[in-house]
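lol ok so funny story. i was supposed to be doing the assay writeup but got distracted and ended up predicting the structure for this chain instead. priorities right. anyway since i did it might as well share w the group, maybe its usefull for someone
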Amino acid sequence: MDALTVKIYKWDIFYFPANVLIGDREKIGNFDELEDRLLAPHPRMRRVLVQLSPNWPLGLYYLHWGDGSDLDELDSRVVAGSAREVDFEGAVVGEARGIRCFECHARIRVIGLEPALALFSDDRARIRAHEYRKHCPVCGKGWTSNVLEFIDAKYWDVPS
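and the output, tada:
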C-alpha cells in the first residue's frame, strides 16, 4: 500500500495521491479494483482509508472538492508531511454506492455524500456549502440525492 498517513482533526487516515493505486485490498471492506483504477486520476477527489474501529476492516472513502482546489498542490504537501486540516478546506467525505434515477430508472454508480463520517471539525458547514450533482447524467432530470461525482469517467464533466 503506497498510502501516506495524514492527521485530520482526530483521525489518522491513509491518503492516496492522484494516480497511486490501492494495492493491499484484502484489508479493505468496500474496495473495488475497477473503481479504484477509474477514480485514481480524478481531478476533484482523493481516496482515503479510515479505520473506524480497531476490529473492523479499513473503509474506503473519497474526499471531494467542488471549489477548484489544486489537489496536485495538496498531494505535494501530503508527500512532504506538511499537510494539516486547513489544507483540506472545502472537502467533504463521500462513499461509492449505486443509485437509480426515479425518472429514467438508469442505474448509476456514484460517490455519494457520507455525512456519518465526520472527518473534519466543521463537517456540518462543509456539507451545507458544498455543491452536488443535481441532475441525472442520462436523462437530465433533477434529483435530491447528495451525489458528489459519477464514477463513470464519461460523466465527470456533466454539469450539475
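Residues 66 and 130 are 7 Å apart (CA to CA). The chain has three helices and eight strands.
back to the writeup now i swear
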